[in-house]
Amino acid sequence: MSATVPRPIPRSTIDSSDIIATLRRAVKGDPDAATRCGILAMRAHLEEEAVDLLRAAADRHCGHATLSQVFGLVARNLGDMKTACAALARAHQRAPADALIAHGLARARIEAGYPAIDDYRRALKLAPAESAVILGLAAARFAERDVDGAIDHIAGIVAQQPLWLDGHATLARLRGMVGRDDDMASYREAVTKLPQAAALWQAWLATLAAAERFSDMAMVVAAARRAAPATPGLELYDAVAADETGDVDRAGAILDRLPYHDDAAIIIRKVRSLLRRGRPTEAAALAESGTALAGGNGLWPYVALAWRLLDDPRWTWLEGDPSFVQVHDIGDQIGDLAALAAHLRKLHIATAQPLDQSVRGGTQTDGALFSRLDPEIGRLRAAVQKAVAAYVAALPPPDAAHPLLGARRRPIRFAGSWSVRLTGGGHHADHIHGQGWISSALYVALPPGLDGGDHAGWLTLGASQALLPGLAPVRLIEPKPGRLVLFPSTMWHGTNRFPAGERLTVAFDVARLI
């Protein structure tokens, strides 16, 4: 069995110096120990310290496939996709029957922007039932503009395996990205075949919630109650649909009687309802109580709203420090913005807004933008890394209780990166990035006239219009080509509508490491 990448664990549980010291001793004569140390280094976020040692070990023991694999994964974590692809290709050459190595190579190649259909097909032959490989092949087809092929492949499997939940979710997303009206059709067909399958109803409702189709959610809840009344979570989904479609009193009555224990997702819904019903004191207390739970980082945006409503001075501690929102004009470091804009437009394969994102009236690129090896993206990434380092350096001292200041400041890792292209009337709905640490908006191309007094197309910070339409933003920032805005991922942000033209941006999240 080849090495896999374990989930990150707190660095304090691993002796970092011992990992690197052991790796240094293992380079010359113990490839198995070097491999194990490489895996531990990834778990402890020590890739910078380990990469050169692993490179030396992999070169010295070039026949050790798993060592080359681990070296490739470390390089991938560092964003060095050229090295990652080469190392994984060497691992695949040494162990052509290893499904994990084949999949890792395919994934690295698609992330780097290389054609990867054939790579995924080879991986699929080795692991024909592996969900991640099947979905990866669909992503590779989509990336090479075989949109129908990507959709038809997933649809065919879902039709035969109606309980493949990841397939349903991916199919809905792909169909939505190209504007198909039947994006939820596979769920509908599956529950017709298996009406008592609670997992199907739950998955359908989760997809509708992510897409913010709350009226449809209410109808699906009613159908699920008839077909599979024991489906877990129906009361919660019923309350969410009611709350988001204006029936706040009925939603509140349901939510008030729902137990939440240590479930941050239920607490968030209760807090949203309390805010809508004009009960910010209760909302603040409940949200504050949940911030320490698993997933509780997503409650800080609601704490901020409640504290603003209550004029609580703690809001200044949470979001009011001037260093938390920084503007960096980096156009001169990026180079030719027109060339970058032209390149980004080619990557916008989708023709409709994504199903589960904040984009309204536009498109979003698929995959990790900063992983691509295109020279335009390389220059962009380098400029962004420099700005993020400056942002972090300007922050106040660490504060373990604070969602921004309590996170580890090194190393800096990107949790996601993408481009958004909005056209006339487009905007971003107010949202947060609960899994990130630092979020961003980088302006590449803008329509004329966004410097007017109406703030059309401007970035808004601190407001949640869908939840509290009367609460104004705490800050409005004018977009300019080459301007990068950095702010905490837990801060509400959105974009005002603009009348006409194209607004082309790049965005990314810096990962919150534990």
State the major sheet: 9 strands, antiparallel
CATH homologous superfamily placement of the largest domain: q2cbj1_9rhob like domain
Beta fraction: 5-15%
| Total separate domains | 3
Query: What share of the residues lie within helices?
Result: 40-55%
Helix run count? 22
| Cα distance spanning the termini | 28 Å
Query: What structural class do helix, strand and pairing data support?
Result: alpha+beta
* Average predicted local confidence, pLDDT: 93
How many strand elements? Answer: 9
Computed over alpha carbons, the radius of gyration is: 24 Å
CATH topology of the largest domain: Jelly Rolls
CATH class of the largest domain: Mainly Beta
* Uncertain stretches: 1-13
Basic shape: globular
Can you name the CATH architecture of the largest domain? Sandwich
Summary keywords:
single chain, 514 residues, alpha+beta, Serine Threonine Protein Phosphatase 5, Tetratricopeptide repeat, Jelly Rolls, 3 domains, 9-stranded antiparallel sheet, 22 helices, 51% helix, 12% strand, disordered N terminus
